[in-house]
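F.,

This is the one I mentioned.
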């Protein structure tokens, strides 16, 4: 906007004064000429402040003449009509200018808000992208939330807290020194799967988990072997032909302690 707010207030004051002369019951030529000059100035200031003239037309040509002619040169019988034309143009400019000013205020408010919204959108997309990528990288785990049981319990383990009895460890369970210690998972119903991820205890005693035998069964009495690991491992990712079973058992084929951090089952 080219004209400052205080100057626009002065323009509005001039309009009020000029229009007051038009509303008097007895128009004198002097009052009309003063009103004409005041309206000319007000319209010029409003144009400079807000908008360009309207599209080219015969009415516009007449208006442009009224804006350039000296008030002293206008014939007396045309003064009142000229004043009313200028007054109507001032109303148009005020209405258009106020709309532009409101839009400018809205844009000043929206711009920082849009930046905040875009930043939040970028963060959201990044989180969603990371989550999706992580899900793709981490296959579905059919064992998540399923009940399990071990051959014995040396201590209660809470992996999320990083504790197992007196140990600082993320192991899921810890058996005693058993003959053929085992961990049994119940999928709750016959389920088809073709792979597993088995994470050994990280900090020490990884050798206790071998030889590790993976067995499946339709009940918790009869078992058939589907995989075996004889070498010490940190993470064992094993794939096999799809098998359908309700129960999965991991068993160390000797006398040993058994403690693992995670057992995941994949479709």
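My design for it:
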């Amino acid at each position: 906007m080219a004209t400052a707010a205080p100057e626009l207030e002065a323009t509005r004051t001039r309009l009020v004064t000029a229009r007051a002369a038009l509303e008097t019951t007895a128009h004198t030529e002097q009052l009309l000429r003063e009103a004409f000059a005041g309206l000319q100035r007000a319209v010029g200031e409003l144009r400079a402040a807000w908008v360009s003239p309207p599209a080219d037309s015969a009415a516009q040509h007449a208006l442009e003449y009224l804006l350039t002619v000296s008030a002293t040169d206008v014939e007396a019988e045309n003064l009142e009509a000229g004043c009313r034309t200028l007054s109507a143009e001032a109303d148009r400019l005020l209405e258009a200018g106020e709309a532009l000013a409101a839009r400018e205020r809205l844009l000043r408010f929206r711009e920082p808000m849009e930046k905040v919204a875009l930043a939040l959108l970028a963060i959201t997309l990044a989180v969603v992208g990371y989550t999706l990528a992580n899900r793709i990288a981490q296959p579905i785990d059919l064992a998540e939330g399923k009940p399990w049981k071990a051959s014995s319990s040396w201590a209660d383990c809470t992996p999320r807290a990083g504790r197992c009895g007196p140990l600082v460890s993320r192991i899921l369970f810890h058996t005693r020194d058993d003959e053929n210690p085992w961990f049994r998972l119940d999928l709750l119903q016959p389920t088809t799967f073709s792979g597993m991820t088995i994470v050994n205890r990280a900090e020490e005693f990884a050798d206790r988990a071998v030889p590790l035998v993976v067995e499946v069964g339709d009940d918790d009495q009869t078992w058939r072997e589907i995989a075996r690991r004889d070498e010490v491992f940190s993470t064992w990712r094993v794939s096999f032909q799809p098998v359908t079973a309700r129960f999965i058992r991991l068993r160390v084929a000797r006398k040993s302690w058994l403690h693992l951090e995670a057992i995941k089952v994949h479709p």
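Residues 5-106 form one domain.

Talk soon.
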